[in-house]
Amino acid sequence: MKAPARTILLICLVCAAALAAAGQRDDDAVISKFIASQESYENGHEAKDYRTVLRGDLNHDGVPDAAVLYTLEGANGTNNYVRHLAVFLRTNGTLVPTAHAVVGGKNYRAIVMKAIQDNAILCDTTDYASNDPTCCPTIKGSTRYLLDGDKLKELPAK
């Protein structure tokens, strides 16, 4: 490859990386704004170290959307925490909040997002046995969530 062609290729790669970074910042701003509104609504605060974002197609349009698992703590002055799953669909290049649901939390279950596959959000769960302390659920499992209109539908893992 000749030097001018290499230079043009390098410039294109740098520009593409800069555009991707700008898109990521825009996505993060949409997600953070949504979670801030949930903090206000539930009178709690996000445990920021426990936010997970996965990208993949969730509505069969071939465009990467976002699934966000986040934790709200201290609602109304309690020591409770609740895990929420929110779906953001990409519309005209911008993420739009579409659906959210409570999917875990203290005395409910632990949950971790693993992947987006076949338009489903795949999660590992740990449920409480009858004698488990509130800190430590022990029953391992898995589940998946599908977007059904503007709702999240939980289904057994395949």
Order of helices and strands: HEEEEEEEEE
For the termini, the CA-CA separation is 49 Å
The average pLDDT value, as a whole number, equals 86
Total strand segments: 9
Structural domains: how many: 1
Q: How many H/I helices? A: 1
What percent of residues adopt helix (DSSP H or I)?
A: 25-40%
Multimeric state? single chain
Radius of gyration: 19 Å
- Return the structural class: alpha+beta
The fraction of residues in strands falls at over 45%
Low-confidence stretches: 9-22
Backbone shape: globular
For the report, how would you describe the main beta sheet? Answer: 5 strands, antiparallel
What report would you give on this structure?
- By secondary structure, the chain is of the alpha+beta class.
- It has one domain.
- Helix content is 25%, strand content 46%.
- The chain is built from 1 helix and 9 strands.
- The chain has one helix spanning 3-42, and strands spanning 45-46, 52-56, 65-73, 81-91, 94-105, 109-117, 120-127, 139-148, 151-156.
- The longest helix is centred in the N-terminal third of the chain and has 40 residues, at 3-42.
- The chain is globular.
Question: What's the topology here?
Answer:
Elements: H1 3-42, E1 45-46, E2 52-56, E3 65-73, E4 81-91, E5 94-105, E6 109-117, E7 120-127, E8 139-148, E9 151-156
Short description:
25% of the residues lie in helices and 46% in strands. It is of the alpha+beta class.
